[in-house]
Amino acid sequence: MNKEIKMRRGLKTRVSNMGSAKIYNSYDLVGDIAVIKTPADSVEDAKKAAEAIMRIYSRRVKAVFMQTSAVCGDFRVRQLKFLAGENRTVTVYKEHGCDFKVDVERCYISPRLLFEHKRISSLISSGEVVVNMFSGVGCFSILIAKTPNVKVYSIDINPVAYEFMQENVQLNKVSDSVVSLLGDSKDIVVSQLRGVADRVLLPLPELALEYLPYALLALKQSGGCIHYFDFQHAAKDEDPVEKTCQKIVKCLDVLGVTYRIGFSRVIRSIGPFWYQTVLDIYVSNLPSKFL
Questions:
Q1: Of the candidates 35, 119, 281, 282, which lies 20 to 30 Å from 201 by C-alpha distance?
Q2: Alpha-carbon distances of 113 from 47, 51, 109, 277, rounded to whole Å
């Protein structure tokens, strides 16, 4: 069990008498900064939770913020309200032996993808070329680059995330393996990365379907693997993974691609009847329009 899960469970148990449990089950711990997710009318409860976090975990947590908007926009950022501790949003997040410097208000990062970061990086073979179309500050890209003799093209449209990504590449000593690129990954694939990749990552669920044809364009003629992330609504009698598969089957069949869907799972629940899912799509034949 990782430290964040232990802290969340411990916090729920120790301060449950101070407010709604939904506050304590809905926060991210990024480095030494905690971000509470709570309804707008629960500001006072959030302040109490922040004080409890600072008191109970004073050695680990140095700042607490309240998330006041959804993650949105081209840069996938959220608005934060300072609650307790040090009024700063830059921290160093540690995961799987790597350090990631990040501004939690101006860049996207999700500790809840910890398992996927490790799972996908463990699939990489020596010699692979990988295109990460939505890299953020570099979590997937840098972990992947720890595999010997790989090349990772790491793309993000957010200039702040791009700057932190470049810094993190140096911090983790993978500058020989990671090429950091700033811009819209559609444009970059078309102009620079057609047919180069053994593997493509689409870790932005909001745009993954729109960018899927460009992920295909980045694959080598022999094909490869696409890691496709999605947000999916599913009622009680529906399987969110199956609904994601149906969406992908419809899209790839129209495009005339030969493929199979390998590993798939629900990563997490993101709201009532909404889920984040992931599919590993293995492409074996690309139509001529992608070559």
A1: 35
A2: 27, 27, 9, 11
Quote the CA–CA distance of 256 and 259 in Å, as a whole number.
10
Q: Which residue has the higher pLDDT, 285 or 208?
A: 208
Per-residue model confidence as pLDDT tens digits over 151-189: 999 999 999 999 999 999 999 999 999 999 999 999 999
Contacts of 246 (CB under 8 A, 6+ apart): none
What's the token pair of residue 278? 């992931």
Query: What tokens appear for 287 in the block?
Result: 């139509």
Separation of alpha carbons 86 and 210, rounded Å? 40
Q: What is the CATH number of domain 3-88?
A: 3.30.300.110
Q: 94 - beta bridge partners?
A: 99
What CA–CA distance (Å, rounded) separates 4 from 256? Answer: 43
CB burial readout 24-37, b (16+ within 10 A) else e: beebbbbbbbbbbb
* Polymer length of the chain: 291
Write out the CATH class of domain 111-290.
alpha beta
Domain boundaries, the chain: 3-88, 111-290
Q: What is the pTM of this model?
A: 0.91
Residue among 153, 120, 123, 116 nearest 138 (CA): 153
